[in-house]
Fold this sequence. Notes:
It comes from Acinetobacter nosocomialis 28F. The protein is α/β, with parallel strands linked by helices.
Amino acid sequence: MSExxxxxxxxxxxxxxxxxxxxxxxxxxxxxxxxxxxxEEELKAAxxxxxxxxxxxxxxxxxxxxxxxxxxxxxxxxAYLFHVNSSTLKFLQPxxxxxxxxxxxxxLKNDKHIFHKKGIELESCIDLAKGFSHFGFTQxxxxxxxxxxxxxxxxxxxxKVGTSNWAQKPLTPQQISYAAxxxxxxxxxxxxxxxxxxxxxxxxxxxxxALHA
Length: 213
């Protein structure tokens, strides 16, 4: 087990088989309340949701981000990419604030602050970045390494796509695939850790609290 960290160097990860992302038919881009209503029942029924958000990058000193510009939620079968506007935020608010629905993702440290500025309180939100102590990782883990460790698969993370304009419409196929994979992979990692009883105590406690709220 102590050798696990050394197996996850960049070159080794890139030699793994590709991550099996959702196909494009199962990735839904949402822009308005009418589209939201068609998926309302499915989303509200989900206990566990993969979660992430993307913001248009800032380049100038002192420039304040107006993000998030895209919010991703994923079930085991579909990913939903929400262009952020007043109607989609209003639709998402009860889901993101629902203590009985767990939102799981990586690197969510700043999300509570970002969403608070939008009038949304994130509840039952689990950051998996520090969920790998069982494997000998004491530092934060990203979704790419987690996928490599648990599934032996390579999840590409293009810096060019990651720092692209997430406020643009329409999104490029590369942006859509990238955004969906982040939320979908996070959910798969969470479910696998839970299945193997490898979730750290603090995450397990959050789950128990949420499910029995």
